[in-house]
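<discrete_fold_record>
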Amino acid sequence: MTDRLEWAHVSSPAELLYPGRDIDGAVVEPGEIAVAMWTGSNGIAVHGPREEVRDRFLQLAAAVDSAPPVRTEAACIAEHSDQPHGQLAQAAPEPGTEYVFALSDYAHAAARALGRGWCGESGFLGAWGLVFSLEEPDSSRLEGRAVRLFVDGEGDLCVGLHDDVVLSSEWHYISTEDLPDFAPRSPGELTVWGEVIASAIRRHYLD
């Protein structure tokens, strides 16, 4: 285990605590409840308004539901690991566990972020996506053409003008510095990526 977290095994007894009840010298505030899990003489507790506590446990349940298969050998946890926090290396991950969304999903998210009149279209197997306007935008740079979202040979997310299957020789990189370190795993996270892509389309083709 690690000393960065307070660990409570799933077999630890749980207790629902209400305002005024001490938790190792602390008091549950009025308007809050707490769920405490006891580990011997110590414990951990999640506290707050009832709905927020409920939502947090639903988030935990969703994290468990989306977890990929876990190896059972003791040797699967190295003494030292460079894996990102919360990520375990998977030699053969189940389909859809590494990347929940296809690249064309990002294009659809960008179209939604651009607003009314914009649409997205999926490329082959979702490996790329098109973003286009049903209403001719006030921009001579598009001239009725679509913007293609793709990943270049160096692994950078890019946009470029698309004519049939011929991609323009000029494209623009999309900065992902302000995005999470990992690919989106929920519709809400995908929406954030869509807004960043839409911003790049506005900057390069509409402004």
